[in-house]
Amino acid sequence: MKKILVLFILLSVIHPLLRGQAMLTPEEAVSIALKNNYDILVSRTSADIDKLNNTAGNAGMLPGIGINGSDNYSLNNVSQDLSDGSSVKYSNTASNTFNAGIDLGWTLFDGGRMFATKKKLNEIEARGEILYKDKVMQTAYDVTLSYFNVVKQKQQLASDNEVINYGKERVKILQASFNAGLAPKTDLLQAQIDLNVNLENAVIQEALIIGVKRVLNQLLSRDPETPFEVSDSIINNYSPDRDDLLKKLFPNNTSVLAAEKDIVISQNSLREFQSLRYPVLNLNAGYNYLLNNNTKGTTRENQAYGPQIGGTLTIPIYEGGNINRQVNTAKLQLETSRYNLESVKLDVNTQLQNAFTAFEYQKQLLKIEKENTALVKENLEISMHRLRLGQTTALEVRQAQESFEESHTRLINFQYNLKAAETKLKQLIAAL
Q: Does pLDDT of 3 surpass 60?
């Protein structure tokens, strides 16, 4: 019964801890970030604003309709000398004028400016969606690298602990040899010093893991102290094809697509300014009602109502050179947008080439280091066995242990670098 009670208490303590350390996969981390990351939310809002602004009314294609009204009351003293020689005088004459109506104003022709504006708004909305997708790709890239950085640091801690185990065994063997008078105390002291350094490295590594976990939680827009656990390994099974990547780069890369939209936007801005050279025809229509009441005078009440329609034609003659200035500025902006597109293409192509080269070389290095890790582990095991038998020196074991530690660190770094290159390639072709 006592054993059962102890077991129950242990389970009751451990279970909440296990539940708190929820396993987080890379896909889940990206999914959480896409829902909660503040940069993505801001980008989504900006794209929604561009969508709301893309209307025919904002482009000036629709009429404006308004209702107006006024009511004026006045009290006047009137003195009039008429042409027939008579005169009229009134004191404290009250007059009330009421006017109401509905007016319509509609630009029928403005040199095509409204159509150029509408096309520009279409492209601005499309660019907003591209920029939103670009922010999604960048966030997914950052989250993925941050996630595997946690895995990397976790692997390093596991490697440190394995080195500590070998260090403890080394101290144990040398302690026994020293007690038996078969080894000098300096060997034992050096082994203990090395073990303490390894223990310090493990403590530092644990603190580093806490820090990188907080960074990942920040990217996920949640409490930095939110507990979670990650996978134990970095899987590298991606096999990219250079020609296929280059084929997909320009049609899919968000930076290139946004730069292409900038060119179209600049083209429509140029058409907007060029349209200022053409006449503008406006239609005006409405229905008005007028009522005027006077307490004295020949006209005591005046009432008028009915529809009205008219038009206004404005022909630009001279604008002080402003239209030419605006057109020339728009042409330069269009030229700048074209230069920018070529620059972006060159930049993303260079990034892809560098990422692909890094991927290929890290893959080769990882393959070599995997073989090397197996060799240094076997060498350390043999050295430890020879140390137990008194057939080797403490220096040889120490060197074997250092080689084991360095090889594991290189292996972990190569795995992470390979994953980083893979993630970069996927980001460049918007495949994350």
A: no
